[in-house]
Amino acid sequence: MRAHAPRPDLDPAALDVGHLALFVGYAFADAVMAALGEAGFADLRFSHGFLIQHLIEGGRTIGELAQRMEMTQQGASKAVAELEALHYVERRTDDEDARVRRVQLSTRGREALAATRRARERLQRRLASRTGDKTVKDARRLLARLLDELGGTDAVRRRRVSAPR
pLDDT per residue over 114-124, tens digit each? Predict the structure, then answer.
C-alpha cells in the first residue's frame, strides 16, 4: 500500500469567489452558532433556520411551510415537530378559522431569534473593528451584487432561501 504524499496547504486567496464566500459563510455561521450555545440555545442547529425564516413575519400552516420550503408536507411536519419538541415553535388555532392550525415562533423561538440577531451584529462589529468599517461595507456591497448577478436576491428578499440541491 502506497502512502499518499502530503499536499501543500491550500491558499484561500486562490479559491474562486463561490467557494470563498461559502467558506466565509460557514465560518460566520459557526461563530453565530457558538454564541447561541453560550446564550442557552445549544440545541438549535443551522438547518433549523431554513424553517424559522418563514415564521419571522407570522404563523403559517404546514402546507404553506411545505410550499415555501419546496418540500413535502410530511417533511415540513417533521421539521416543525422537531422544533416544537425543542420549544421553539408552537401550533395555534387560526384566529379566523378554528379548523386551521398555524405554526408560529414560541416565546423561546423569538428569544433565540433575538439572540441570533445580536450575535450576528456583534460578529459584524468585530470584523469591522479588525478590518475597518469600509472594508466590511465594501465586502457586503460586493457580495450583494454577486448575489443579484447569480439570481439569488429575490429568494433572500422574500425569505425563501433554501439549502442547495
Answer: 999 999 999 99
